[in-house]
Amino acid sequence: MSLQTPDLTQFPPRSPRVRLGGYAILPRMLDKGRATLAGKNGEYHYACPLDQRFLEFAGIDAEALKKELTKSDTEVLAWIEKHAKHKRTAPEIIAWSNWQENRSPDNPEGREYFNGIHKAVAPTRTDITTWFEVLDADDFASFGGKA
User: What is the Cα–Cα distance from 111 to 51, expressed in whole angstroms?
Assistant: First the structure.
């Protein structure tokens, strides 16, 4: 792997808020995939349920994408744009990313999982209401921060 390979045993992946080509989640997923290929993914999982949201929206196969991860973010984005089954417009991508960024648990199982993470990493914080917020707090706390 190259200098782009993050060591997720030492640092978290990029926040799900970070965007590439307008897509939220994508840079985080690329970090997890590259770290998985290098055996440095720690507790992080490539193609997890969050990643699946991007994969389904774009119409990309996780295993096919994984084969492209030795390339730069820009090259991977170009590959995604070429191979996506769902060709999305810039406004569609922006709307989807904004929706993802503001999404909260929408079922009892999701709420229970969310509450468990929240309680473990930032039990006194009342401002954590979205998935992205709880993931950012978890990443911060997992590497020694006090959320």
Answer: 18
pLDDT tens for residues 55-92? 999 999 999 999 999 999 999 999 999 999 999 999 99
Query: Where are the domains positioned within the chain?
Result: 1-101, 104-147
> To which residue do tokens 């039990």 refer?
123
Residue ranges of alpha helices (H) inside 1-124 are: 26-37, 49-58, 62-66, 73-83, 90-101, 108-121
d(CA 54, CA 117) in angstroms, rounded, equals 22
Start-to-end CA span in the chain (Å): 32
DSSP state of 14: P
- Tell me the C-alpha distance between 7 and 38, whole Å: 8
Question: 8: which residues sit within 8 A by CB, 6+ positions away?
Answer: 31, 32, 35, 40, 41, 42, 43, 44
Q: For the chain, how big is the Rg over CA atoms in Å?
A: 15
100-120 pLDDT tens trace: 999 999 999 999 999 999 999
Quote the CA–CA distance of 42 and 31 in Å, as a whole number. Answer: 12
pTM score, whole prediction: 0.92
Cβ(100)–Cβ(132) below 8 Å: yes
